[in-house]
Amino acid sequence: MTAPPAHPPRKVYFETFGCQMNKLDSELALQALARAGFTTTDDVRDADLVVLNTCSVREHAEHRVLSRLGRLKPGGPVRKEGALVAVTGCMAQRQGRDLLRRAPQVDIVAGTKEFVRLPELYADVKRERRPLAAVDQGEVFDYPRDPRFRSEKHRAWISIMRGCDLHCTYCIVPTTRGPEESRPLADVLDEARRLVDDGVVEITLLGQTVNSWGKQLPGSPDLADLLCALDELPGLLRTRFVTSHPNFFRNGFWERIRGLRTFCPYVHVPAQHGSDRILKRMARLYTTDGFRAMAEEARAAIPDLVLASDWIVGFPGETEEDHERSKSFLREIGFPQNFVFKYSPRPTTPSERRFADDVPDAVKARRCNELLDIHAELSHAYNLSFVDRAVEVLVEGPSKTNAERLFGRTQQNRIVIFDGSEDLVGRLVSVRVEAVSPHSLYGTLCEPSAPRRSLPLAGR
Ligand code: 5AD
Ligand code: SF4
Question: Are 32 and 118 in contact (CB under 8 A)?
Answer without folding.
Answer: yes
